Amino acid sequence: VAAYDEHTIVEANCEAFKSSLQGVNWCFSSAANKTTFEAATQENDRNQYLPFVGGHCGLGMANGNLVARGDPRTAIRIGNLLVLNGRMEVRTLFLQDTERNVDNARLRYELALAAGTLRSND
Questions:
Q1: What is the pLDDT of residues 88-101, one digit of tens each?
Q2: DSSP, res 48
Q3: Which residue of 31, 49, 70, 114 is surrounded by the most CB atoms within 10 Å?
Q4: Distance between CA atoms of residues 69 and 105, nearest Å
């Protein structure tokens, strides 16, 4: 929530502020951020605060790496997307061709979901 709304990265307190959605525990830095996240969850479990391509590394997914994990410390909001990458250096590379990387990552993620090689919360 902080990364999306305030463009800041803050440390989450999982002991105090945790919510579950789509089988994943989401941790927050404050009760207000937890409440904001929960209020944004729709009946179909869609939520604007969920990371792009399931939290995988954006550049990794754009290049077909289905196992590259995103690091929340690299979070950056691009339009209405919260994009994670594996490291800050990777985020820099992702941003060198943002539009192409977003398009490629989205396409590869959707194809992997449809093929069953990736689940939405992997």
A1: 999 999 999 999 99
A2: T
A3: 70
A4: 13
Provide the 3-class DSSP secondary structure of residue 59. helix
pTM: 0.85
E strand or H helix that includes residue 73: strand 71-78
Terminal alpha carbon distance of the chain: 20
Percent of the chain with pLDDT over 70: 98
Q: How far apart are CA 82 and CA 51, in angstroms?
A: 5
CA distance 42 to 40: 6
* φ and ψ at residue 21, rounded to 5 degrees: -150, 130
Q: What is the pLDDT of residue 87?
A: 97
**Rounded CA separation 6/63 (Å):** 29
Residue 18, CA distances (Å) to 7, 31, 80, 117 in order: 20, 9, 23, 29
